[in-house]
Amino acid sequence: MKNRFIVDNRITNEFVENYTKTTYRIIGKNKHTAIKPCHWLEQRLMTGRDNRNCYKDVFGIKSHRCLQNTPSLPFCNHQCVFCWRDIETGSLGSEFNVEPDDPKDIVGEMFRHHQDIIQNHLPLRRYLDNYEIMIDILYYMLLNGEGSHNLDSLMNKIHVSKTKIVRAINLLKNQNFVKPRNQGLTGFELDDDIQCCIDSREEIEVLINRALTTPDEIMQAHSEAMIPNHAAISLDGEPLLYPKMSELVQEFKNRNMTTFIVTNGTLPDKIKDLNPLPSQLYITLPAPNEQIYKQVCRPMIKNGWKKLNESLELLNSLSCRSLIRLTAIKNLNIDETYIENYTNIIKKANPNFFEIKGFTLQAKALSIKDRLKSDKEPHYYFPDYEFLEDFAVKFEEISGFPIIYKNQVSRDFLFAVNWDKDKDPKITKL
Is position 264 within any domain? Predict the structure, then answer.
């Protein structure tokens, strides 16, 4: 039987199956497009509240209505050491070398698969059950007085699976309703204020409703999630390698969606040709100079640093909003001695915003040691929030660009450059 997933003998059945085992959905006739709901989309579905959005909330983007996608999954001209996606995708080519699917078709498929994920893989029933399980856990712990409760005991007493207990406990822990009993995080106990001041299941429900969520909010978020209003063209690969990017942006625009494109900046001619432009264009600035750029990005093209700088020089002439992002790697591309270099690059490009975001040490990024051929362990390169905050404050002092937003969970710092620091950065038009 012919393997229906093979495309030009490059995008193989094994490739598609490996991705599909995760929460990716690879779509389109030629299998170069994918969507993937992010962690924050599910977090928003759990409670329906704004405090469960990702850092893009500063721009007015709600995580449960965000369609994270890429039209160029298998292709990238960088092999960045910080990339948490599958580095093998880049090995499929630094050029887009399959027949591109039609933008209208793939946007339609994105919506179909997104709605299937929301209905069947992140179903409403799961989060309504989670609401009840949280109340059950707190009530059980209240009735059983002070002391430690582990996952197994809670599972046996509440009579639900350990997966459901873990989901509920994590949310309660994040809200500080329960706290770890020991360093191994195998035991939990009720917060002292709840233990001393709450007397009944009804009072627990009122507490959950006030501080965390209600069934109505969960149902509303789930309903809204069915119709995304933002497309984050950033999931994997280098999106501007897709030859029909302008048409793709237009298709999203036709659905009244805002769009972000995140590019590595090595395709300045593609940026020049974008029409329409996205709502906001991100360019990754991975280094203060060419030497570190080559070490961080391991480019598979010639003159990558030169092309990146050509793209940065275009920003001031574009009619869309723009942002330069520094993906920060401790002991590699972020150091106080580099602040002047970064400042000069940013002043020359004059984007609306500059962002420092710590790289994520998960999935394939755990291989950073091997990618750098280093004898240092991965955490040597991981910048925690306190480290980044210290650097961001120094950057603010030296560059003169004010910090206008911080997100501790995402380890993200946003600076105003060509933007009034007192003006709301939320996007108000497509």
Answer: yes
DSSP-derived 3-state class of residue 123 = coil
Q: Which residues constitute the domain of residue 382?
A: 13-118+231-416
User: How distant is the alpha carbon of residue 307 from its chain centre?
Assistant: 26
pTM: 0.91
Of 383, 376, 333, the residue nearest 358 (C-alpha): 383
Q: Are 277 and 250 in contact (CB under 8 A)?
A: no
Residue 425 lies in a domain: no
List, in sequence order, the alpha helices (H) in 175-321: 192-197, 201-211, 215-225, 245-254, 268-273, 290-297, 304-314
Q: What secondary structure does DSSP assign to 393-419, as a single string? A: HHHHHHH-PPEEEEETTTTEEEEESSS
Order of strands, sheet of 403-407, starting from the edge strand that comes earlier in the sequence: 25-27, 33-35, 66-70, 230-233, 258-263, 280-284, 321-328, 353-358, 412-416, 403-407
Query: Do 165 and 275 sit in the same domain of this protein?
Result: no
Two structure tokens written together for 156: 């046996």
Specify which residues 407 forms β-bridges with. Answer: 412
3-state secondary structure 309-325: HHHHHHHHHCCCEEEEE
- CA 96 to chain CA centroid, nearest Å: 24
CA distance 87 to 307: 22
Q: Is residue 8 part of a domain?
A: no
- The count of domains in the chain is 2
Amino acid at 322: S
What is the residue-level pLDDT of the chain in tens, covering all 430 positions?
Answer: 333 444 455 566 666 666 665 678 999 999 899 999 998 999 999 999 988 889 999 999 999 999 999 999 889 999 898 887 754 544 567 788 889 999 999 999 999 999 999 999 999 999 999 999 999 999 999 998 766 788 998 999 999 999 999 999 999 998 999 988 765 556 888 988 888 889 899 999 999 999 999 999 999 999 999 999 999 999 989 999 999 999 999 999 999 999 999 999 999 999 999 999 999 999 999 999 999 999 999 999 999 999 999 999 999 999 999 999 999 999 999 999 999 999 999 999 999 999 999 998 887 778 888 899 999 999 999 999 999 999 999 999 999 999 999 999 999 999 999 999 999 999 987 7
Pair (253, 399) in one structural domain: yes
Inside any domain, residue 347: yes
